[in-house]
Amino acid sequence: MKPRTIFLATIVAPLLLAIVALGIFRIAAQVRETNALTVLPDVSGRAVPTSEGSIFVIERGSSAGTPLLFAHGTAAWSGLWLPTLDHMAAQGFHAIAYDLPPFGFSHPAADGDYSRPRQADRIIALVQALDTRPIAIGHSVGAGPLAEAVMKRPDLFDGFVVVDGAISLNSHLAPKTTPIWLRPTGLRRFLTSATLSNPLLTRLFLRNFISVKDAATPYVVQTLKVPLSRKGYTAAAADWLPQLFATPLDAHSTRPGNWQALPLPLALIWGETDTITPLSQGQDLQAANQSASLTVLPDVGHIPQIEAPEVFWQALLDVLRQMTQET
């Protein structure tokens, strides 16, 4: 075979196929994303007006109960917390889950800034709008902005529970920047439409995040897909995507001293077999705040609330009861 033919077969052809595939996924996203932001899911939730824009929440239980505020992880939304909300409501709590922009059904950030400090501002604005003082419960990537909010305004919260949190403790000491290939906005949108907002990959991505593979049920997968038809979802998610790779340099929550100084009850719940945010990260947080409890869930990975819901619920109830006694 001639060198020119080899070059075309091994480099040019695959490159062209990749470009065509990216174009197809981008067009598919544009065709799919037709629902206006005013179209809300049928889960008895509501859009809460705040000083930082409209934020979607789902609430369960009596407002007389101790308020709990749940934060979701990457590409999830408040709907993934529904079974947990119902269970906590049955235990007498006022359970609230919110969609952190750009995910779910909250309005995208008007300034396009999804840095951890700015996300914290949105959470603070939500808590103020709800006029409540909750125990905050943050999962995965959602735990970082929530930790930032708790550290900025501890007076607005009664406690903090981190569930397999992506905190990036001490990451400011060796900061990472956004990869070059994610810097062009146009390319980032093409890549996002092929990955993060691609419903064909939802189940595959979910299974890669969990240890209990059977937890990727049709119900859970379909729940995660619900927001993907929202107008502008891919563009907003593409604006957020660099935050997944870059170090939150100006964040209080990456510094161990701020965890040590946290003037609130702190509890950590971690899946023993988590490969996304390994148990060692939970142990590092406990070392930073030795007053914190660390509950390890055996044979559970990164998303305990779907991998072993009853085990997770009991662990959460245990720490919540301890916190409510302390406060």
Please report which band the strand proportion falls in: under 5%, 5-15%, 15-25%, 25-35%, 35-45% or over 45%.
5-15%
CATH architecture level-2 label: 3-Layer(aba) Sandwich
Distance between the termini: 76 Å
What is the structural class? alpha/beta
Number of domains: 1
Radius of gyration: 20 Å
CATH structural fold name: Rossmann fold
The CATH class turns out to be: Alpha Beta
Order of strands across the biggest sheet? 1-2-4-3-5-6-7-8
Low-confidence regions: none
CATH level 4 superfamily: Alpha/Beta hydrolase fold, catalytic domain
Order of helices and strands: HEEEHEHEHEHHHHHEHEHH
Per DSSP E runs of 2 or more residues, the count of β-strands stands at 8
Mean pLDDT: 92
Backbone shape: globular
Topology of helices and strands:
Layout: H1 3-32, E1 45-48, E2 55-60, E3 67-71, H2 82-90, E4 94-98, H3 116-130, E5 135-139, H4 143-152, E6 159-163, H5 185-194, H6 202-209, H7 218-225, H8 233-240, H9 256-260, E7 266-271, H10 279-288, E8 293-297, H11 304-307, H12 309-326
Parallel strand pairs: 3-4, 3-5, 5-6, 6-7, 7-8
Antiparallel strand pairs: 1-2, 2-4
Helix pairs in contact: 1-5, 3-4, 5-8
